[in-house]
Amino acid sequence: MALLDKKSKKAFSDPLMSNNPISLQVLGICSALAVTVKMDTAVVMSLAVIFVLAVSNTVIALLRKMIPGKVRIIVQLSVIASMVVFIDLVLKAYFYDMSKQLSVFVGLIITNCIIMGRAEAFAMQNGPWRSLLDGIGNGIGYGGILIGVAFFRELLGSGTFYGIQIIPDSFYAAGYENMGLMVLSPGAFIILGLIVWAQRLIANIEEE
Amino acid sequence: MHSNKYTLIFTAVLTIILGFFVSTADSSLKDMREKNIEADIRKNILSSLGFKETLESPWTNERVEEIFSESIIGFVVDSAGSVIDGKNPKDINPDKDFKEFPIYKRVSGEEVEGYSIPISGKGLWGTMYGYFSIEPDGATAKGITFYSHIETPGLGAEVDKPWFQNNFPGKKFVDPNGKLIGIQAMKGGVDETSPEAYHQVDGISGATMTTNGLNSFLYEGLKNYDPYLSKIRSSLSL
Question: N or C: which end of chain A has fewer CB within 10 A?
Answer without folding.
Answer: C
